[in-house]
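Notes from hallway chat w/ T.B., transcribed later so I don't forget. T.B. wanted the structure written out for a chain they're using in a teaching module, and asked if we could keep both sequence and structure tokens in one place. Agreed to drop them here.
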Amino acid sequence: MSKSLEFWENAYSLGDHNTLWPWSDLVSLVSRQVRPISNPKEFNTLELGCGPGSNIPFFLSLDVNYYSIDGSATAINNVHRNFPNLSQNVVTGDFTNEKLFSNWHNFFDLIVDRAAITHCNRNEIKSVIKYINNSLRPGGVFIGVDWFSKNHDDAALGIEDNDKDTRTNISTGECSGIGKVHFSNLENMRYLFSGFDIIVLEEKVITSYESSRQKKIAYWNIVVKKK
């Protein structure tokens, strides 16, 4: 098991990061950019890093075919227990491993990620985006939510991990104790998704005036379509 997967397995086994509600930005972007789905029974959706399954009820409400990969066996076991009908479609694995995508060429209509790929280094992110492109049907959509921005307070903390924009060993702030984090700027986001048609690219910057712990947090949301 890689250090990154080991970190997330430990976190979920300790009961951390067990958010159980759908993430509002993801729900909003799917609703705005993908609907209406004319044939939901033929519409295939993949979530990278489902964690405990917080977004699954939303996708089940759309009646689409849902698949997911997550690196934590504990998280996936919880999903299987809560959603037994998905046990064949939701698997434990490293989504930076190309083999996991080998049977999914041109298979998915929608691939989503809420703050999972952003915990990879630059080379891993580039590889995952290539796998995403290969796995989407022509005209298929990828939605990424809450990718850390270089305007985030924590972007200069910790130490470099593989490249100058990936940081690890962050000991304070929002990103403390969550393993490695890749922080992107606008140029990097456009570069990473240069092989797609970019539909939405927005940066959320939130400044807190009362908190003594965290002053500014910043994230990217992106929606792209396969050419």
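Follow-up for T.B.: The chain is about 25% helix and 30% strand. Might be a good example for the class.
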